[in-house]
Amino acid sequence: MSDATLLVLSSLAGGDKHGYAIMEDVEAFAGKRLGPGTLYGAIGRLEECGWIAPVGPRDRRQPYRLTAAGRDYLEAQVSDIGRVLKTAAQRLNHA
Q1: What is the mean pLDDT of residues 78-90?
Q2: How far apart are CA 31 and CA 38, in angstroms?
């Protein structure tokens, strides 16, 4: 999966959001602006995987929520990334 996938899942881990709110949240916590094509492509893939699900529309916008499977996937990715970062830090300290 892509960086956009992890960014969208991370945003939705904080609560239900529609597309624009996800873009704003990602920019705030990651400093990365997701374009509409990247964002909605990731949302489509995440829905197909069953990692996010739409919530009833509010104000003409479609909010999404993180599913249990999406939470499990995100937790596994965070663990994997943590291992990589720990190893990198250890190796940098010995360089």
Answers
A1: 94
A2: 15
CA 88 remoteness from chain centre: 23
Q: What angle do CA 78, 4, 88 make, to 5 degrees?
A: 40
DSSP character for 61? Answer: B
Q: What are the backbone angles phi and psi of residue 6, rounded to the nearest 5°?
A: -65, -35
Neighbours of 24 (CB within 10 A): 14
Total number of domains constituting the chain: 1
Chain segment 27-77, per-residue pLDDT in tens: 999 999 999 999 999 999 999 999 999 998 767 789 999 999 999 999 999
Range(s) of the domain holding residue 82: 3-94
Distance CA 61, CA 86 (A): 40
pLDDT score of 1: 53
Place of tokens 């993180």: 66
Dihedral (Cα; 37, 72, 58, 14), 10-degree rounding = -90
